[in-house]
Structures are given as structure tokens and as C-alpha cells.
Amino acid sequence: xxxxxxxxxxxxxxxxxxxxxxxxxxxxxxxxxxxxxxxxxxxxxxxxxxxxxxxxxxxxxxxxxxxxxxxxxxxxxxxxxxxxxxxxxxxxxxxxxxxxxxxxxxxxxxxxxxxxxxxxxxxxxxxxxxxxxxxxxxxxxxxxxxxxxxxxxxxxxxxxxxxxxxxxxxxxxxxxxxxxxxxxxxxxxxxxxxxxxxxxxxxxxxxxxxxxxxxxxxxxxxxxxxxxxxxxxxxxxxxxxxxxxxxxxxxxxxxxxxxxxxxxxxxxxxxxxxxxxxxxxxxxxxxxxxxxxxxxxxxxxxxxxxxxxxxxxxxxxxxxxxxxxxxxxxxxxxxxxxxxxxxxxxxxxx
Amino acid sequence: xxxxxxxxxxxxxxxxxxxxxxxxxxxxxxxxxxxxxxxxxxxxxxxxxxxxxxxxxxxxxxxxxxxxxxxxxxxxxxxxxxxxxxxxxxxxxxxxxxxxxxxxxxxxxxxxxxxxxxxxxxxxxxxxxxxxxxxxxxxxxxxxxxxxxxxxxxxxxxxxxxxxxxxxxxxxxxxxxxxxxxxxxxxxxxxxxxxxxxxxxxxxxxxxxxxxxxxxxxxxxxxxxxxxxxxxxxxxxxxxxxxxxxxxxxxxxxxxxxxxxxxxxxxxxxxxxxxxxxxxxxxxxxxxxxxxxxxxxxxxxxxxxxxxxxxxxxxxxxxxxxxxxxxxxxxxxxxxxxxxxxxxxxxxxx
Amino acid sequence: xxxxxxxxxxxxxxxxxxxxxxxxxxxxxxxxxxxxxxxxxxxxxxxxxxxxxxxxxxxxxxxxxxxxxxxxxxxxxxxxxxxxxxxxxxxxxxxxxxxxxxxxxxxxxxxxxxxxxxxxxxxxxxxxxxxxxxxxxxxxxxxxxxxxxxxxxxxxxxxxxxxxxxxxxxxxxxxxxxxxxxxxxxxxxxxxxxxxxxxxxxxxxxxxxxxxxxxxxxxxxxxxxxxxxxxxxxxxxxxxxxxxxxxxxxxxxxxxxxxxxxxxxxxxxxxxxxxxxxxxxxxxxxxxxxxxxxxxxxxxxxxxxxxxxxxxxxxxxxxxxxxxxxxxxxxxxxxxxxxxxxxxxxxxxx
Amino acid sequence: xxxxxxxxxxxxxxxxxxxxxxxxxxxxxxxxxxxxxxxxxxxxxxxxxxxxxxxxxxxxxxxxxxxxxxxxxxxxxxxxxxxxxxxxxxxxxxxxxxxxxxxxxxxxxxxxxxxxxxxxxxxxxxxxxxxxxxxxxxxxxxxxxxxxxxxxxxxxxxxxxxxxxxxxxxxxxxxxxxxxxxxxxxxxxxxxxxxxxxxxxxxxxxxxxxxxxxxxxxxxxxxxxxxxxxxxxxxxxxxxxxxxxxxxxxxxxxxxxxxxxxxxxxxxxxxxxxxxxxxxxxxxxxxxxxxxxxxxxxxxxxxxxxxxxxxxxxxxxxxxxxxxxxxxxxxxxxxxxxxxxxxxxxxxxx
Lengths: 350, 350, 350, 350
Description:
The structure is a homotetramer. Chain A starts with 21 loop residues before the first strand and ends in a 16-residue tail after the last helix. Chain A has helices spanning 56-66, 81-92, 142-146, 163-177, 195-206, 216-219, 232-239, 280-293, 298-313, 325-334; strands at residues 22-27, 31-39, 48-54, 71-78, 96-103, 111-116, 123-126, 148-154, 180-184, 211-215, 246-250, 256-260, 263-267.
């Protein structure tokens, strides 16, 4: 039996997971990334920028689509040409955008302008009065969430009202209807009014989530509540509590440490020459969810995620650089591994 | 065995409830009430006002003190003469005010100015940038909450940041340390940014509370989430869920409807000539908690609450008009009842 | 000829001043004063409060009405019982309240709660989201201002938007229609976003005003602009510039120093036993304007103002303690002076 | 004698204009323009953007520098790579940036992302919490303004605090020191809290300005004050008042209508094939100021402005497309005109 035992899961309300039309709804920001045209050049030096869709949950949706996973999106963009671009792009790659609102009250679609280099390029982020944070609880449809197997939450969606309340409401609807919740911590301190407020909402959110993914710096958000997060075991002690059944601690070059109710394991990364430092986490999350949805073992799901991360950072773009299944197969072959197959029975955690 | 089985309750962290030094910590606003000197006169007509301490959780703390219950307070007042008055008053009646913050950044202590009449006197409330809503998660001490048997939350404390986060944090600490949470809905729509936001936080709060008290209008706050609250049974279906073990629907002149895991019962009121429409709910809550703390049966606890409510509204003031045990005894005797005694064994629910 | 030569003044637009139906329109806050019932008692000790209408320009309007001056008001109160009280009171004493708006978006009528003692009683002021600061430029009628001889501005009305813009617009309309502008500095640093912003608007406002009244601390508001206000002469050098033709520096127990284009003079006070420290300035301004309107000499106008100030502070209330003409006559007689008579010809300045 | 008679102007404070080291200080926003790489393509279609410095007063500073005018700048950019780019660029073209502040409290440098086409390309503007609007009165140096002959104000700098107060203060310093003020209306309704507030500040600003430049839509901002702006003569009746001595009504394809105290004249445009609709006004203002500074006649100054506007819109960029003197000469020759020479004596207005 697989970790989440999709076919057998009987939800409180709504139809069984296996019969739901959407695999994953990603909730949070979708914005525009502008990548410097020239490498290793400062903002003063570059001549211009390439244009892509970005934002962690949008990147994950793109990663899922490349793997033919049925993905939906809940978020908000501005009522202007850049908002339309984001919406057009998501539609063009087959993301269901019925949950993507357009807001016309002065908000602006999130914009990240970045230099290009492998280590610490400067990124200037335009998120003052960001459209995605204007997502309102009124915009959240219980029926839409009930149509999905998984709800992927970007923690940044909790950083300000009314997106905060919209996100909490979506999570409540998910719990009511048996939709699994995967929380990508995505903690950016500058977005929050205080570290203490961040701790309160991350604590609430992790207690509503089935899967929690983050890195050590992100998990430390709870320290203001007196929770020790100084090592993996301490993190797991707090974060792997009901209803959370899967905790993934991302450790950069060291790979990841995975905890589940019955045990834990560590996995390394596939070393590649990176073109940029972003994209790895979103690629990882997309392939991990693919693995979970396809009854791959946890170990195999994590390997797939690591391969996707490696492929993404070795390319110059982000949402557009998510690998297809064929590319993953090819990559794994070149590393003397093969694309994993579904497990059967109780062999999951290992 | 009594409802909450104090002596036997084994908490996750901290000492057993029976050994805790504080019985009830009330969390929320404490402010100033100004009552018109003359009855049945408009604001234009009255010559002046009498001064009292008010605010629902402060009134409940006052009610508890009259019954010799060890009460503490978590809240905030302004750094001025009216803030000091509130703090001085709570100290003078024996409330532990270690959790009462003083804020000096332009906030003002909540102020309610009211006409005097039994039915619908106008009340003008000054709560723009109210001190109590400035309570910050940094002000919340896990140790202090661990020292109390019960944490009484006024729902209004959830209406705005940072009080919202401070309140959620206090509730999380209470759950972590086995402190019982009693939530008085105290829903005032005008305090909230939207009905949907109110629904989100009330839903979260009721899912963290052991006891929930409110009236039908207040429980209807969840209707924007598609939850039916059209009658008592519907309300109970949603609100009496883990961990909530006691739900009290206050019904004005019709008394109250009480739900607990094993059943439900209704109780009428003691009819009196009212001097004013406020104070009844806070007097009720205070005596109810007294009953719970003293192993009275649920039925007896509710009767005691109703008697206290009747006494309070028949007087001209509010916090200062909370009855003593002797006054409750005398009132019950005059209604051919006697002051209830603790139950033993399993006879609680009835 | 008198200082402002009313009958002869030919305005750019509108009718001659002498034919205008309103003598003075006061612009700014009108609120509620709550005076402690007991003297020399702290807020913790007092039992309650007496209720009055207050706010500097409302007090000046009350002072003018006691002297039978035709007074109007431009301002805003909240849509509640306290707002109605303020409006009812102003109407009851004959103030024209066509320019008094009622606002219902959560603002509150300004409220000052005060201890009672002659020296430095504590005053707690409720002005968060104050109704008067919600006055909007849309509320300002050029026709109404054109119907008045004088527009009295309380400088505090400039402290925040949209009252700031409404006030500047009223001043522009006044200049366009030949309505004389009297500016009472009324500078309260805590109301302003920064001292520099205060300096900018006070500088603009004084350059639009015919008469400027303030004390040395208030005039120092311009120091952040590099303007020296260390002594009366320095103050006059800056503040007595076109179109300002009358500058009154109030100096507390030392009386006042008066500057006009042709010279200056000082006047002492009438010593009395004060009941409270407020009200003197507003009583002074009211009688001064009475003098100007009635062709009294500047010296006599200032004497009248000083007498009114002395009478007011010797009483327990403020707006209701403004003296009538008969009371001023009686007071002056008891000080071996008589009520001044209009001047004729060019004898004004001295 | 020329219009402003620089050499003879005797200022109240500071040195004569002719001896001042700076010709023009431009005050207001300097930001980043991102121009679509492909023409006639929507935001969805374009592949990326070219990067330039933009913002009306920054463009005017660039125009002035191309003509070897000594230009300074007062404004603010964000403390990040895009802010540094703007600052670096202005320095690189020789603009004195001592008055350019860097702000690090979450503001962002103004960003305009635009499609490319001659008629109505969509422009998405990121100005939520814009750095330039964070310019504070504390940042304004009286000495710096006293060192310049002209202060060029972009009206948008008045749209929000604290930039509004900083701008008013700069204008007050300019008047105090005899620095001529040129106001480019630059009215963008969406930046303002209300049309009435815009009217109040534009009215104040025009009454402090020597030169006022705008188009008919911009001048209509005063209509909420009851001022008729339905035709050029009505506009002139209001806007050409002391101390304004030059009013230029820009009329798009119809050219411009110029009013000065002694008369008025109209001038047409140089028809060219436009690449984009922006830049013309800023190019015009730059050359006009060059003309004024160099004793050209008003007619010649306007012709120079029109030529610069024509050259700018025929190019693909904006700040970088401002013409040099040589380019203006060449352009005028190709239109059978020659570069104007200074006038002598009283022949200015015509």
C-alpha cells in the first residue's frame, strides 16, 4: 500500500481521491521573472531582460504540467498586460486557471528582476501591494478544492491579508473534503509584519498539512515560540505531528532529509554546473508530488525530485526549464539510474 | 466524575490542572465604560457620565473575583490616566495583571460611552487604534498560560493584528500545556475587515477551544463558509466537534441551550426588571466557569450563570454589579432554589 | 479708518464685507470635553465626568455667540449620539451649522477626557480616526465662505488628510472672495506625521492669512526650515509678511505681544484664580475678533480678549463659560476699566 | 531684455542667478523604463525588454545634459541594484546627484514596463510604495536650491506624502532664494487620493511657479474648484497669474499655445514618423529651458522644443534619445530653419 493510499482514501465529504479530475491545485503567487540578458553583469551593466513566468507555486504548476500531471491554480494577477501574460502562459501550458482571479484596484503582479550568475545574483522584487496577496476568502471555492487530490500551499501566501485568510480558508476546505495538503514553507522574513506573526501562522499551517517541505532556515521560523529547530531531529520532533505524514528537510548541496511516521532517510543531490541558484526547490517539489501521485516509493520520489532540481538549475530559465518525463529518464540513465516504477503493497517507506 | 475531571487531567506539559495557581486567565479588552448619569436621556440631554471598568473579558474577570476565583488577565491598555485607571481597578479587585501590557505608541484604551435605558440605549464606542488590539505575540508568555487551569478568550481579540496573532499564540500555548480554552464568541461585525475573515478565524478558534459560548447571531458568523446555523441543532452539529466538549447557545429571554458530547438541555432565565441590556452575558460566563471549576453539575452551573445574569442586569452598573456568592445564595433562595453543591461521580450531564 | 476697513474693502469676487450675513466662520474640530467631576483627583479616583462641547474652533464659535456675533462652522462629526450632541449644542447657541458634516465611515467625534486642576491636569484625547479630520475638500462651499467676513482656521485642521486639503481649499476660496483669514496656530506636534511637514503647511497657511495668533512654542514650528523664532522680533520678522497684517504672540502669564505693519505693543493679563488651564486662548480669540468686527482699536480688542480669557479660566467649564458683553463690562468695571467703544478715523494702532 | 533677465535679477537671498553653478535642478521621479524588445507585440508575445532610465524629470535632466546644461537632481531611489542603476546612469551623463537620496525601507524604484508601438501601447507602471514618493522634507537643502537658476518640478511629486511636503518645501526655498520655478504639470489622476486634493495642490503649486507647462487635460485638474478650463483663453485666465510669467499649453499634434504677460502665440509641430508616444514632452521641456537659459526668444525656444520632441519620438528610446545641439541644428536645417541665436534687448515676446 502506498503512503497516501489514494484509491482507498475515504474522504469525509466529496468523492474518493482517485476519481477527482485535478491532481494538484497550487495556491499562491504567480508573477513575472525578468532575467538579465547578460551573465555576470550588474543591473547597471545589463542591456535588458528576458521575460518568464515565475513565483514558486507557478513554477511547481509548470513542473507538474511537464510531467502531464493535471494541475490547477488559485491566485490573483493584476488587470493589466503583465497579469494577462501570466494568465495566458498558465493556460498555454494547460494549467486550469479557473481559480486565478484578476484584480483591478491598483495591485500589481509580482515582479522579480534578477541578475544572472550561479552564486548570489541580486534579485530586486516588486511586491508592494502585490496582486497575489489580494486573493480574498470570497475567491475560494470549496467545490474547486474538493475536485483536487492535493492542495499545494506556498507559505508566502500566509504573509498578509486578505491572502492569509484566503489561504487558511482553502486549507480548511481541503481538510473538510479530504484533499491532501502539501505545504512548501517558502518563508521570506521580509514579507511578514513580525517573526512572531510568521511563527503563529506557520504553526497553524503545519498542523493542517499532510506534507511539509522546507529548509532548515525556514523551519527555524518557529523558534520565537520556544521550539528548538537546531538539528533535523528537533525539526522532525515538532513538524512531524498529526496530521503531517511526510516532512522533507531540504539541505542544499547536502541533499534532503526525509521523515515519515515510520522512520527517516537522507538522499544526496546530483551535482551539476548551475546557471542560477533558483528553481531547484520548485522542480524538486513538482517531481516529488508526481511520485506521490503515481505510487512511487518515497525514496524514488525524492530521487526524481533531486534529478529535476539538477536539470532545472543547469538551465538558464526556471518555469520553462522544468524537465519532461523523457528528460528525467535520460538524465537518470546518464547517472546510471532508471526512471522509477510504482510500488505495490506496503513497501513504501524504503 | 466531573465534566473536565480536573484532578485527573494529565497535561502534555506542565503540572496537573488542580495544582495550578491561577483558575482563569481572561484574554482580550479591558476598557472604560461611561454610563449616562440620567436614565432615558439622549446624549444631547445627559449632564455627564459615571465611570466604570468594562469590556467583556474584564467584566468576566470581575465576576470571577466576586466569587473568589483566582483570575488573571492578558491584554493591553494605553500609557495614560485612563489606562492606569483600568490597571488600578483590576489590581484593586485582586486580578493578577502581570499579563496586562501598557502601550505608548498612540493607542487608546477602549472607551464605551452609553445612554442608560433597559432597551437599546445608544452606545458610542471609541476603538480606533484601540490599545487592546495592540497586544503582540511577543507579549504572550507560555509559562503564564501554563500556570492557569482555564484560558478565557474574547473572540473580539481575534478581529485585528497584532492582537489576532497574540490570541492565536495564547491558544496554541494553552493547547500545548493542557490549559482548557473557553471561547466567548463576542462577535462584533464592525470590528472585522470582512465577514469572510471573521469566519476563517472563528472557525480556527472554535477548533482550538474546549468550551464555546455565544448567541445565535454570533454563531452565524460561519455562514459565509457554507455552514448552516439556522437552528440550534445545526449550530451544534458544527460547533460541537473535537476538541469542543461544551457548547452554550445563549438565547436572550429564552434562556440557553447547552450541548455536550452526551446530550443537550435547555434552561430558562430568571425574569427581573432590567436597568440596562448589557452585563448579562459576562455575569453568566463568570458563574458558569465558577461552576465548572467547582465541580458543579452542568445544569447547576448554568442555573448559577442565569442567576448572576439576572442580578447584574437589575443593577445600574456592570463590572461592579457582579454578584458575590452570598448574593447568589440569597437570590436563589428568593426563587425557591438553593446554591448548588459539587457533584460526585458520573452524574454531571444532567 | 479701522485696521481692516470693513465697509470699504472691495473684494475680488462677491459682495462687500459689510453686507455679508456671517461675521465669522470657524473651521476645524468640534468635539466633546469630559471634565472630571471632582477636583484634584486622578482618573483612578474620580467618579465620573461632566459633559461639554469643546475643541478650539468650537469654543471660539461659542465665545462669538455669547457676544452676539453671527458665527458659522465648517467641520465634521461622527454619525452617532455624541456627534449629534455636538451638532445640537452648536445649533442651540445659534451657530450656523450648514457647513458641519456628519460622517459615518467609522470616524469618531473628537473626545477629550480631563482631570480638573489649575496646573497640568492630565488630559486623555481620543483622536484616532477623528471625525473632524475626515472633512473633505468636496465638503467646502465657495459660496458659504463668500458669505462670511472672516474665516477662522484652527491650525490643527491642517495636520492630516483630507482635512488638510479641505482647509487649504477653504483658505484659497477665502482669498479669492476677500474673506479675511484668521489663523489660530493651535499646533499640537503629536497630531503631525513629522515636524517638517508641520513646518511646510504652517508656512503655506501663514502666507495665506491676514491674522495669525499663537504662542512662542507654536511659532517655533518653522525652525526646521531654518527660520529663527527665538524672540518676539524674530517671530515677527517672519510671520508679519504679506498678506499678514496682524500677528499676536500669546505669552501666558506675561500677556501678549501684538505686531501690525506700523508697529507693535505688549499687553498684560488680568490675574485671576484659575480653575483650569484651558479656555483662555479661545476666549481671547473670540473677543479679539469681536473687537476687530466692531471697529474697536487693536489695543482695546486685546484688552477685551484678555478680560474674556481671565473670566473663562476662573470658571469650571470652557465653551459654556464664555462671557457675555454684560459680563465683560462688569469684569472691566471691577478692574477700573470700561468696555471699549469703536474708534473712528486712523487711530487704530495704539 | 530677455524674459527672465537673468543677469539683472536680484534675488532676496543668495547670489545673482548668472553666478549660480547649476542651471536647472529637476525634482521628482527617476526610475527604470523597460521597453519591449519587439514592436507591435503584446506583453504575452514579447520575449524581453530593453532597459533605460526614465521618469519625466529624469528625462528632462537627460535632455538638458545633451545640450550641455548644468543639471542637478532631487529625488529618491531604492537601495538596490535598480536604484543604483538609475543613480549610476545620471552620474554617467553628468547630472549632479547630490540631491538624490537612497531609501532602504521597502520602497522600490519606479518601474515602467511598456509595449512598443506608436499609438497607445500598454504601459504597466510599478509605483506602489515608490521610492521617489519617499523623498522627505528633511532631504531638501535650501543651499542646494539656492545654487540653481531654475527648479523644475514634476507635478507628480506632489501626489503623495512625504514627497508632497518635500516638493512644497523645495518650492518655498526656491521662492525665498529667487530660484525660478518651472512646473511641468505631469498630472496622472491615478496617483492621487482624489481629484479635489489634486486641485488643491496644483492650485498652490501654480501660484508658486514662474513657468507652467501642461496639456489641456492636465490643466482641467482645477475644474473641481469651479475653474473653467474649457479653452486656451480660460486656462490662461487662471494659470497666467502672479508669479507665473510663462504658460505653455501643449496640444499634441496641434503644437502648443504660449501665453506670457504681454501676449500669446501658437506654434505647430514638426511632423515625423513616431516610434512611440512618449518622450516628446520631456524633450520639449528640456530644449525650452535651454532656450530660456540662453536668452533665446520665446518663439525660438518653443521651436527648439518642438524640434527636440520630434527627434525624440522618432527614435526607439527616451532618455537616451534626447538630441544634442548638433542634432538639433541638423534637424532644423533639414526643415529649412537654423538654430536660433540669443536675442538682445526687448525683443523677446515674438
